[in-house]
Write a structure and sequence with these properties.
The chain has about 300 residues and is an alpha/beta fold. It has one domain: Vaccinia Virus protein VP39 (Rossmann fold, 3-Layer(aba) Sandwich). Helix content is about 45%, strand content about 15%. The protein contains twelve helices and seven strands. Strands 3-2-1-4-5-7-6 form a seven-stranded mixed beta sheet, with helices on both faces. The radius of gyration is 18 Å and the shape is globular. The model has no long low-confidence stretch (mean pLDDT about 95).
Length: about 300
């Protein structure tokens, strides 16, 4: 990622989500407000406009399934599934578990907190990301985002700054609130030691009730569910984004328990199909990543 440019991954994930959402059979999976917000963000930059043009291209729509076969089968559909899992977890935490603060660690171009901040004015929302990515998003969403009293952006360059120092010293963060942290598509690029440190940091930052965490984890290569394509490793190394941490979904509960967390929900590929794809002719789904909802023990 270049210093002054928004994340290429943020563009790719949002483009993939729109790619799926434009298919009529997924109307119930990707909501209209998700599509509207996503298109607004992409339309605000030259790179984003290029990706919107690609979505209108028949050639591009033909190439995507081929690229997925080689890299990650069913990847764009998986983006939509994991985001639904995360959104459901956040809504349940707010409406049923007393969560009054949501912090998205590595928000990218995700629109969840943007879409929820007006619906839940009593909840404090914070997005954390690299400065250039956050700036591009803020510019796209304009005055409504700038004027939101319960939606904050915090720029963090994790090559130079720590989460504990930046979030702990941020005036928009209210540590006494019951907080849920979102960590989507991030943990796989950390080492196990860094994951453990992050889990400990979330507890340290939260001075009120025990924090919640909804995150995604990557299956080991040898896991039967993992249908990763043959070229993914080479592709990620070329991008400088090698995966460092993998954990089988069958062992993540004990991993979290050893670090003071209780797993509350598990979103495997099988569970995603049951919850979100029942009755839909969906084709291949990606089995190499799953969602987890957990809470630190009191």
């Amino acid at each position: 990622m270049k210093e002054n440019e928004a994340s290429a991954t943020a563009y790719a994930v949002l483009q993939g989500l729109l790619y799926v959402g434009r298919k009529p059979r997924y109307n119930g999976l990707v909501a209209e407000d998700v599509l509207t917000a996503g298109q607004t963000i992409l339309a605000a930059t030259e790179e984003g406009r290029k990706r919107l043009r690609q979505l209108d291209s028949a050639l591009f729509r033909t190439i995507v399934p081929l690229m997925e076969t080689l890299l990650v089968p069913g990847l764009t559909l998986h983006y939509a599934l994991r985001k639904r899992f995360i959104e459901d977890a956040v809504l349940s935490a707010i409406e049923a578990e007393g969560v009054t603060q949501v912090v998205n660690l590595g928000a990218g171009f995700d629109t969840l907190t943007w879409r929820l901040h007006e619906r839940f004015p009593e909840v404090n929302f914070i997005e954390i990301d690299h400065p250039a990515t956050g700036a591009a998003k803020a510019q796209a969403l304009g005055e409504r985002m700038a004027a939101a009293e319960n939606l904050h952006q915090l720029s963090v360059d994790f090559t130079r700054q720590t989460l504990a120092a930046r979030l702990g010293g941020f005036s928009g963060f209210q540590p006494e609130r019951t907080t849920l942290y979102i960590c989507e598509g991030v943990m796989a690029y950390l080492t196990e030691e860094q994951v453990t440190e992050m889990l400990e940091t979330l507890v340290t930052l939260s001075q009120g009730a025990a924090p919640w965490l909804v995150c995604t984890c990557v299956e080991p290569l040898e896991a039967p569910e993992n249908n990763t394509g043959p070229l993914l490793g080479t592709y990620l190394r070329m991008k400088g984004e090698s995966i460092h941490w993998r954990i089988a979904h069958g062992t993540v509960k004990s991993f979290l328990a050893d670090r003071g967390y209780e797993m509350k929900d598990l979103g495997t590929v099988t569970e995603f199909k049951t919850r979100y794809l029942s009755g839909i002719d969906h084709g291949v789904t990606h089995g190499g990543e799953y969602g987890v909802l957990a809470r630190a023990r009191q």
